[in-house]
Amino acid sequence: MSSENLDPGSDHQARFDAIVRTRVSAPQRISEVAAARRRRSSLVGETGRLMLIAADHPARGALRVGDDPLAMADRADLLRRLRIALARPGVDGFLGTPDMVEDLLLDGALEDKVVLGSMNRGGLAGTSFEIDDRFTAYDASAIAEAGLDGGKVLCRIDPDDPATVRTLEACARAVDELAARGLMALVEPFISHRFDGRVRNDLSTEAVIRSVTVAAALGRTSAYTWLKLPVVDDMERVAAATSLPVLLLGGEASVGEPETFGRWKRALAQPTVQGMVVGRALLYPPDGDVASAVDRTVELL
Fold first, then answer.
1. Is 160 in contact with 197 (CB distance < 8 Å)?
2. Average pLDDT over residues 145-167
3. What whole-number distance in Å separates Cα of residue 282 and Cα of residue 195?
């Protein structure tokens, strides 16, 4: 695509319409564009850290941002926000499901970017089977074939749900299959419990430390494993629980709250912390200014 087409300020609806036309009339273009995509030689960017924008929530039916339960449901608007974020200096790449990655590939937004594929999205938000988190999106072979740089797995551990062991086993297998191809395995662990029928993650320091030690040992080797962890109290103890590289999870933090950037900055000072993966917090800031929210976060790196 031309530099004009890559301009995040251009006609967003026209670009969305072009993606739809390609999907209808020339779906083979997806694999062709993926094969021709310019890839980076290093995971970390010019900051020496790794800054990724994430948008894999919709695949689990998790569309809420703040008080809006369907904030992420408008795909054209989500792609507009992603284009703005990915075009900002210091943003190294993207994490998403196949549909999201392929939309951005067709739009030319992933050139020279690190791209990670989200793998297990079967634990749909709010369902009775949420902890049985099946691998319904990318697998390791598809990630390699698409020329992506790695895969991300969500590993929620509910001590009271027997389905946890199936998810643990599947996550370990994914780590093995990615490592065999020399690709990053980004593991996002949580200790989780059900309250009033809904799964909630335990964000106490002790629970996060416990999840770290379990996740770091998944698979036959940890050589290619990175961890994606929430920012909680006492991140010094959390980061000290492993020697693996850590990316901070932005989660549902609001960049409109001054304390958010302070917490992120303190966490980034830990030696194992190598960057951030942020989605909704930067794509849907309270003032709507995606570019400024991203730029302020990049400055922390």
1. no
2. 97
3. 28
Q: Which amino acid is at 243?
A: S
Which segments within 37-161 are labelled E, that is strand?
50-55, 93-96, 114-118, 150-157
For residue 259, the enclosing domain spans 3-300
Q: Assess whether pLDDT exceeds 80 at residue 87.
A: yes
Q: Is residue 134 a contact partner of residue 154, using CB atoms and an 8 Å limit?
A: no
Domain count, the chain: 1
Provide the β-strand partners of residue 72: none
Cβ-based neighbour number of residue 139 at 10 Å:
18
- Looking at residues 245-260, what average pLDDT do you find? 84
Q: Phi/psi of residue 276, each to 5°? A: -140, 150
pLDDT digits (tens, 9 = 90+) for 191-204: 999 998 899 999 99
In CATH, what number is assigned to the domain containing residue 188?
Answer: 3.20.20.70
Look over the chain and give the mean of its residue pLDDT values, rounded to a whole number. Answer: 93
Identify the pLDDT of residue 259. 86
Q: What is the pLDDT of residue 131?
A: 96
Closest by alpha carbon to 68, among 295, 258, 221, 280?
A: 280
